[in-house]
């Protein structure tokens, strides 16, 4: 994407973001209101940018045909994930597979496979309303995977997962990142350290830092910023550097 701008009435959520994401797991970090959800929603083609250009899987999303094609090959877990509580897990994931135009003959196996990957095989015929919050989140991850997406957009996927599930989810992310472009927004820097190949830090609608989890940790090792882990200190150090007077031009 180049020069991406997003406005919500008077609020500028993204202020000219240039980002090129290849295969791998990209962590998207930033304080509340930094613009992470706005960025993911534009990439998911559910929101229109007010400026700039977005190309996904070689398609320009400003064009109707491009958007239709991209939607078929995209997986998206929104921050507030809408589902039908009366559906079973199997019915709901199959419904999303149908929306994504997965060939009908492949749907049963594709559904069983993704539900097993998120650790819900034993609840596949349970109604979603009977599941815990963390389990519903995992249904959300399963529906995002059902069409074997080339681009996977996950907005705070680990919110509500218990520690064991988070560890398993990171493993799944690493696996997915070998063949797809995965963008994960999170507030949990340890998820980024464990599962991401690259990290982008947004602050007030601009890119404050880009690098690898290792480079962010290294920044933390030489900084005296707050944080209990080097990558947390790197996060605060990168934000402070970005916010320092005169720093704006040196970023990017
Ligand atoms: N629908 C909306 N109407 C008005 N302002 C909005 C709307 N959605 C987002 N904003 C504003 O846009 C900015 C970016 O919000 P966004 O949700 O993209 O941030 P975020 O990084 O995802 O935050 P969080 O970590 O809290 O989820 C914020 O200032 C927010 O208040």
Approximately how much beta-strand content do the residues carry?
A: 15-25%
Strand order of the largest sheet: 7-8-9-3-10-11
Shape label: globular
Main sheet summary: 6 strands, mixed
Low-confidence stretches: none
Compute the number of helices. 9
Instruction: Count the beta strands.
Output: 11
Q: What is the H/E order? A: EEEHEEEHEHHHEHEHEEHH
Associated small molecules: adenosine-5'-triphosphate
Describe the protein's topology:
Layout: E1 2-8, E2 11-17, E3 24-29, H1 36-43, E4 51-53, E5 55-56, E6 59-60, H2 64-72, E7 74-77, H3 89-99, H4 107-117, H5 133-145, E8 151-155, H6 163-176, E9 181-185, H7 189-195, E10 198-203, E11 206-211, H8 213-221, H9 230-243
Parallel strand pairs: 3-9, 3-10, 7-8, 8-9
Antiparallel strand pairs: 1-2, 1-4, 5-6, 10-11
Helix pairs in contact: 3-4, 3-5, 4-5, 8-9
The structure holds adenosine-5'-triphosphate.
Pfam family, one: ABC_tran
Keywords: ATP-binding, Nucleotide-binding, Transport
Protein name: ABC transporter ATP-binding protein
Fold and architecture overview:
The chain is α/β, with parallel strands linked by helices and 252 residues long. It contains 9 helices and 11 strands. It has helices at 36-43, 64-72, 89-99, 107-117, 133-145, 163-176, 189-195, 213-221, 230-243; strands at 2-8, 11-17, 24-29, 51-53, 55-56, 59-60, 74-77, 151-155, 181-185, 198-203, 206-211. The protein has a 6-stranded mixed sheet, with helices on both faces. Strand 10 (198-203) and strand 11 (206-211) form a beta hairpin. Helix 3 (89-99) crosses helix 4, helix 4 crosses helix 5 (133-145) and helix 8 (213-221) crosses helix 9. The longest helix is centred in the last third of the chain and has 14 residues, at 163-176. The relative contact order is 0.15. The protein binds adenosine-5'-triphosphate. Adenosine-5'-triphosphate (ATP) is lined by residues 8-9, 11, 13, 30, 32-38. Adenosine-5'-triphosphate binds at residues 8-9, 11, 13, 30, 32-38.
